[in-house]
Design a protein that fits this description.
Distance between the termini: 38 Å
Strand order of the largest sheet: 4-3-7-6-5-9-10
Shape: globular
Oligomer: single chain
CATH architecture of the largest domain: 3-Layer(aba) Sandwich
Helix content: 25-40%
CATH topology of the largest domain: Glutaredoxin
Number of strands: 11
Order of helices and strands: EEHEEEHHEHEHEEEHE
CATH superfamily of the largest domain: Glutaredoxin
Length: 208
């Protein structure tokens, strides 16, 4: 059946092109070697954050769910806090993103997120970004908590994946694990190539 003609195109064809374009946007992901997806979100304290705010700076983005055993592995042991403290002291920026939808595991209202941050002894320079509609998480292709991304001063993704090479939820394995995020940052700061630029992220699924 032919659609009604509108501006030289049939309505049916125009509608089809709209539906075909939508998935392309929904499936945007942060891929090493390519420009990082843009974002504009608000953190638990009400401050706004966008990719443009970090132009010319190194940025780590981490996905978080306080109820996930794998997040507890790295926070309960102090491993994630130690990473944040080390690299933010070297003027590397860090955002911790909560993409859990309202009513789903890990969802936090702003006041509760600030309380969780305090209880986890989080570095003040690694604020909780509240992405309850999942737009930032989907743009980056964040699949798990934790899921880690590193963006260079040119706005390009240089690492995407797991925090380390051991997908056990047992914190006892951390000392023997290879930390991919630390290795990527250390190499970058020295102007060296990153040995592992992407890895399979492990953890709990992001609760969109």
């Amino acid at each position: 059946m032919n659609g009604k003609r509108i501006g030289g195109k049939t309505f049916g064809k125009a509608l089809l092109s709209m539906f075909l374009a939508a998935p392309a946007l929904a499936l945007a992901v942060a891929v090493p070697g390519e420009k990082a997806p843009d974002f504009s979100e608000v953190d638990a304290s009400g401050a706004k954050h966008s990719l443009a705010d970090y132009k010319g700076e190194w940025l780590v983005i981490e996905w978080f769910n306080k109820d996930c055993p794998y997040v507890r592995k790295h926070y309960g042991s102090g491993n994630m806090q130690a990473l944040q403290k080390k690299y933010t002291s070297e003027d590397i920026k860090w955002l911790t993103v909560i993409s859990s939808a309202r009513g789903k595991q890990g969802y936090l209202e702003p006041a509760a997120a600030l309380e969780v941050a305090e209880n986890h002894n989080l570095n003040a320079s690694a604020p909780f970004v509240l992405d309850s509609d999942g737009s930032m998480g989907r743009a980056y292709g964040a699949k798990t908590t934790p899921h880690m991304f590193i963006i260079n001063p040119e706005g390009e993704v240089v690492y995407a994946g797991a925090i380390d090479d051991n997908d056990s939820a047992n914190p006892a394995v951390i000392p023997q694990s290879k930390n991919f995020v630390a290795a990527a940052l250390d190499a970058s700061m020295k102007g060296e190539g990153i040995e592992v630029a992407s890895s399979r992220a492990y953890g709990c699924s992001v609760k969109y």
